[in-house]
Amino acid sequence: MSATPECDSTLESSLLEARGRFIAKHPRSCELHNQARTVMPGGNTRSVLYYQPFPIAMEKGEGSSLWDIDGHEFVNLCGEYTAGLFGHSEMRIHAAIQQAMTRGLNLAAVGRAECELAQIICARVPSIELVRFTNSGTEANLMALTAARVHTGRDMILAFRGGYHGGVLLFTPQGPSPVTVPFPWVVADYNDPDAATAVIEQNRDRLAAVIVEPMLGSGGCIPAEISFLQALGKATRGAGALLIFDEVMTSRMSDGGLQKRLGIVPDLTTLGKYMAGGMSFGAFGGRADVMSLFDGRLPHAGTFNNNVLSMAAARVAIGEIFTPSAAEELYERGERLRASLNDRLMKLGVAMHFSGVGSLATAHYRAPTIRRSYTPTAREDGLRELFFLDILQAGFYLARRGMIALSLPVQQSDLDRFVDAVDEFARARRRLLGPLNAVA
Ligand code: PLP
Fold it and tell me: Would you say 364 and 257 are in contact if contact means Cβ atoms under 8 Å apart?
């Protein structure tokens, strides 16, 4: 990494220098962004991919490597925000998609692949007795929430500050975002069992469901405490409401999701991201008495719900590649990576650490342990950007917010180099990070 050790420079001047370096190295991405801005607001069509001064445009990917349109190569640790679990070129997934194409697209009929895929999911995920497919995790959550509302005959939903359940199901650390669908929401703090139990009790006549990620994903890879999830289970059962685990990100934590690892069984579960090997995908499932609403009484439409590419890819991705042992191995790799990163940072005594579970982690610029999502300070925002720019310069592509999602093809040697690059960042930016004990 080319970052020079520094003593006296301020965060702002370090950022200016890092941004200048980034701009100089990415003229083609800059030009594409300027063109895109004339036809798409913000120059993009997926908000998370935008960052200042402009986002890098990628040309191609292979295994766990990416090449941008300016010709730079990166180790991909962004992992398509968890949807890229299989990397860019898993040949068994490519073959499944190609074979599906040879049988023809858009058959407007049920098929074998969706039945086999449903059998695999029902056999693996403890809470799922019956399942249906959607195009995205957002849709899966909308359908699960709807199922809960119809099943209970109630309308209100409890979600958690900092939770993310899709493009129209976004909860900032303050509460629902203006883009969030107008269900009657109540919100509580993550990992606060007493507060959540009190909200459930207060709304017991109106509450249809509690929706929760067993680890806040985009909210900062913050794990749920088991006692919190257990309390949600107890309180929802007591109030006759349904508990929905959004496992769109966390289902990778074992062959049966994080719920299997934690031994907690919700009423409904939603899935998505990597499951169709990189094709569009979502699924919602759970208790047979709730899901059987969709046996004809309640419609569940969607032109692409069982599209042949996603179904064929998912059957191979989940059924043949992401086996229970592959899931376990990836989980352990992620645990080891986070331990090595935190060990180095702890030894340096800087206020930076990685939170997470298994193969998902996020960098934070404050002391561990973080229990809920927070609005970063201006200093933390600056450090996030600086880390992103420095680590790009070192050849690693991450989510701009500092999130890592490991993919199966990532080489151990690349992860070792990444730990060294983070160590070098922390040494070079030591003054800016500040000592561990001085930051709340
Ligand atoms: N739920 C969680 C926990 C997610 O992380 C996401 C996406 O990041 C979603 C739901 C929405 O999934 P999709 O982007 O497929 O709509």
Answer: no
Quote the ligand 1 centre to 100 CA distance (angstroms).
Answer: 26
Ligand 1 center from residue 49 Cα (angstroms) = 14
Q: Which atom of ligand 1 is nearest to the CA of 250?
A: 3
Fold designation for 5-76+324-433: Aspartate Aminotransferase, domain 1 (3.90.1150)
Ligand 1 midpoint to CA 165 (Å)? 5
- From CA 11, how far away is CA 435, in angstroms rounded? 15
- Given 3.90.76.10, 3.40.640.10, 3.40.190.10, 3.30.420.10, which CATH number is that of 91-321? 3.40.640.10
In whole angstroms, what is the distance from residue 180 CA to residue 159 CA?
Answer: 12
Q: Whose CA is nearest to atom 10 of ligand 1?
A: 165
Query: Tens of pLDDT along 261-280?
Result: 999 999 999 999 999 999 99
- CA pair distance 245, 258, nearest whole angstrom: 9
Best probe residue, ligand 1, of 213, 248, 271 (max atoms within 8 Å of C-beta):
248
Tens-digit pLDDT profile for residues 71-120: 999 999 999 999 999 999 999 999 999 999 999 999 999 999 999 999 99
Distance 96 CA to ligand 1 centre (A): 24
238 HSE (CA, 13 A, CB side): 14
pTM of structure: 0.97
**For the chain, percent of residues with pLDDT exceeding 90:** 97
**DSSP at 8:** S
pLDDT for residue 437 = 81
Which amino acid residue places its CA nearest to atom 12 of ligand 1? 137
